[in-house]
Amino acid sequence: MIGKSKKMACLMLVFVLALTLLAACSGNNNGGNNGGSTAEPGDSASPSASAAATEEPTGIDTSKKVELQFYMLGNAPKDLPKIEAEINKMALEDLNATVKFNYTTWTDWDQKYKLLLSTGQDVDLIFTAEWTQYQQYSKKGAFLPLEELLPQAAPKLYEFVPQDMWDAVKIDGHIYTVPATYKEYVTNGFVWREDLRAKYNLPKPVDIKTLEEYLAGIKQNEPTIQPIAIGAGIDMALSDAYLEFYRKVVGPMSYGMIAPYEDPANITSYWGSPEHLEDLKTFKRWADNGYFSKNELNETEGSQDKLANGTAAAMLGDNPTRYNSTLNKMKSVHPDWDLGYHPFGLTNGFATPVHPIHNGFAIPKNSKNAERALAFYEKMVTDKRYNLLTQYGFEGVNYTVENGYYKMVGDANSNGFVREAMNGWAWRNPEFMLFEPSYDNVEKIFSELDKVQKPDIYTGFAEDYTEYQAERAALEQVEKQYLFPLMAGQVADVEAGLATFMEKAKQAGLDKVQEAYKKQWLAYLAERG
Amino acid sequence: MLRKNGVVKELYKNRILLLMLLPTLLYFLINNYLPMIGIYYAFVQFDFNYNLFKMDFVGLQNFEFLWKSGKLTELTLNTIGYNIAFLVLVNVLSITVAVLLSEIKGKWFKKVTQSVLFLPYFVSFVILSVIVFNLFNYEQGVLNTVLQQFGAEPVDVYSKPKLWILFIILFYLWKNFGYSMVIYLASITGISEEYYEAAKIDGANIFQRAWHITVPMLKTTFVILLLFALGSIMKGQFDLFYQMVGNNGLLYSTTDILDTYVYRSLRVTFDMGMATAAGVYQSIFGFTLIMIVNAVIRRINKDYALF
């Protein structure tokens, strides 16, 4: 019966193929139920055998060996296993602990971050920032309060971070994260092609008027270059940056609210206001004049890349560090080109250094080894051996120090651990930091901004949206559907478009959300004075 | 008593077979049934401090965001509409091409065609989106450059929502139909040559043979694929829509599906409750649909039904 068995074989094949098809479709049906992970034996709070702890300088019980789970965003460097092995050698001796460095990669990091915290996974240290919603997670109780643990488990670290920084990261009176102490500015500034500007004798973009003149000049003289690169994330790259400069807002508030830095209690709805209409018309004008692409919303290439490879000639806003790396990238291919930079702060008269929340490490509530984790993190920050190793790799193998400057061995492709390859922004220690010579440029900008610095009063605000999260989600949608095309200048009648957007937003519950947001903001201001 | 005896006896009689079944049963229990407890997340207020069953029960509050923007109907219709279009077109196209290919005698040509059609399946949508952007981009896109060469007006493809219905379907077909074609081709190979020979002797031409033998013989495969696909009809092709349309709100009226909507709404929120609620809505819809269609099919022909 050869025919029969052949038929059977074929049928089997069909089924297998059909099943794989099915399996491919049902990849996302995980109910997210990893809860109740089994208790690790290495509970540092165990009362047993505390005798050995007395001679430990950290004042915590290290009698049991534990493995710490360390989570950072981004991609793991190639040489991470070597670094990890070396760190573990030291940590085992110092703290009787080993550590596993885990990386989320940048793909869907926000989803993974969410799952790490909400499914009760074994995580002992995790990166926090305002852009990973540190304030909201803290408010909801995802992290362990550290104020009592710190003096006991990490006294040196507690001393090292200045008190005003500890105060700044407090949410509802508790410290949930260990902030980075390195002071930098991530405020925006205009970026433009200095060589083209000089060639066509255009004005330096220092405000919106000169920027528009520059853009017009580029459009006229270099028709193949897109005058300004915005990108698909138009809300941040165009609207937020514009508000930061032109309306001098206190910070990128949500739900179309704005408050000026000078008078933060004066919080009003920007959406639907005459100012909003005026700004949208400006954007429309830019789009109509061809300063940015008609299809900016679908742009797939990064703005910095476009600038570096010469397809665009300006950016509305970028921070000093990123401007510098764009410049270096460009110089490496086109040495005769040049980029100019003008921080908004110099025109506006104030710049806010980065808020301590911007980089930090927290201990999730589920951590079984909180004390040890904190003690280990103290080592990462304050112990030069740990710090240099995790920031720059092995000296002589990955980098060398020349005249006090950092120098990479080989190039970015051959070197398995480039500068700050572990994305160690949070455990930077200004005392040990090494810079490349090109960073002097950034330092120069920073010192200029230092002269006009004012504290960041926005980032410490922790919004609690439990009350209106349905409206919040609905608004997110309305904004994308109706406001984004307006910002991109793709709606012929701006006034009518804005009216439609406002109508839809009101339907989705804008008023309720704005009202609640305003109340929370004012309460926060009152609390902070 | 007698009945119980019967069950025990049955179990004992087939003990080896049942033992062999056990791993599969366990697999499904652990991977497919146990996680269903997570459905409960859709009905509670998520809280880091408690475990699942101690969190506050909030009823349907988590589902609210789905209809709050007044888009639920549009989204549901879009999702179903696209999936039906995908389903019908992919099957019609792949059956046709599979039949054609099976009739081709040249082995070399056949293999090459098959591979060429199958390859797009491995192209990621991320890459496709870059290709598409370079094709349709208003200022520097291939399409507009060509149009301008011939002196025609450039077209702004990215502001024409209607056009995207066509594009989305085309991209989906391009990417996926090779795969299901291979499935059909495999079942065609399983059809016994004897039928064709008999038909040939009776004087049937090549079209008659294809229409009266091959197509009816593919029915079982088709029905199975159909039922599988129907179960996930509310689960849109997230990658495709997300990558092609992205942030372009101008196109949402025709290209927004439940998955992209949920992603956008919850991207900045970390609420487990709402995310689960959206999943539950999709699953219930899919479950109901598959039960109904299966019942209908069983009515018509019991052999073709899934269960």
Automatic annotation (TrEMBL), chain A:
This is Extracellular solute-binding protein. Residues 458-526 form the DUF3502 domain. The keyword rRNA processing does not apply. Residues 34-59 are annotated as: Disordered. Residues 1-23 form the signal peptide. PANTHER family: ABC TRANSPORTER SOLUTE BINDING PROTEIN-SUGAR TRANSPORT, ARABINOSE-BINDING PROTEIN-RELATED. InterPro entries: Bact_solute-bd_prot1 (IPR050490), DUF3502 (IPR022627), SBP (IPR006059). PROSITE patterns: PROKAR_LIPOPROTEIN (PS51257). Pfam families: DUF3502, SBP_bac_1. Keywords: Signal. Residues 44-57 have a biased composition (Low complexity). It comes from Paenibacillus soyae.
UniProtKB/TrEMBL annotation, chain B:
It is a multi-pass membrane protein. InterPro entries: ABC_transporter_permease, MetI-like, MetI-like_sf. It comes from the Bacteria. The chain crosses the membrane at residues 16-43, 80-104, 116-136, 163-189, 210-234, 274-297. The keyword Transport applies. GO terms for biological process: transmembrane transport. PROSITE patterns: ABC_TM1 (PS50928). It is found in: Cell membrane. The keyword Transmembrane applies. Keywords: Cell membrane, Membrane, Transmembrane, Transmembrane helix, Transport. GO terms for cellular component: plasma membrane. Residues 76-293 form the ABC transmembrane type-1 domain. Belongs to the binding-protein-dependent transport system permease family. PANTHER family: ABC TRANSPORTER PERMEASE PROTEIN (PTHR30193), LACTOSE TRANSPORT SYSTEM PERMEASE PROTEIN LACF (PTHR30193:SF44). This is ABC transporter permease subunit. It comes from Paenibacillus soyae. The lineage of its organism: Bacteria, Bacillati, Bacillota, Bacilli, Bacillales.
